[in-house]
């Protein structure tokens, strides 16, 4: 191959390499200075909106759950209060226990039977 042809091929290759490098450099600068800040701002805005929506949903769910728990506790307390035995019922139970205890002691020979 003659020297002029080799020089011409090298010039074409060098020109193509420089053109590619220049194009990549310009594209990178456009990305860094224009596209990247816009993308970051858009992402931050979307994250803030998603965060606000999630917080609102969590607060709503907590409010509903709190109401359910409060209602169940209220019903449980009311059930417990309404199912308490009366004084007469407690007295009868105590007397029954006393009789049973006295009978057991009498059977064992430790006490007197009525």
Could you give the topology of this structure?
Layout (H helix, E strand, L loop, with lengths): L2 H80 L4 H22 L6
Please provide a brief summary of the model:
This protein is an all-alpha fold and 114 residues long. Helix content is 89%, strand content 0%.
Q: Could you characterize what this model shows?
A:
This protein has 114 residues and is mainly α. It has two helices and no strands. The radius of gyration is 45 Å and the shape is rod-shaped.
Task: Based on the model shown, name its key terms.
single chain, 114 residues, mainly alpha, rod-shaped
Question: How large is the count of helical segments?
Answer: 2
Following the backbone from N to C, one meets helices and strands in this order, namely HH
Backbone shape: rod-shaped
Query: Can you count the beta strands?
Result: 0
Tell me the distance between the termini.
136 Å
Q: Flag low-confidence runs.
A: none
Radius of gyration: 45 Å
For the report, how would you describe the main beta sheet?
none
Q: Specify the structural class.
A: mainly alpha
Mean pLDDT: 86
What share of residues are in beta strands?
Answer: under 5%
* Amount of helix: over 70%
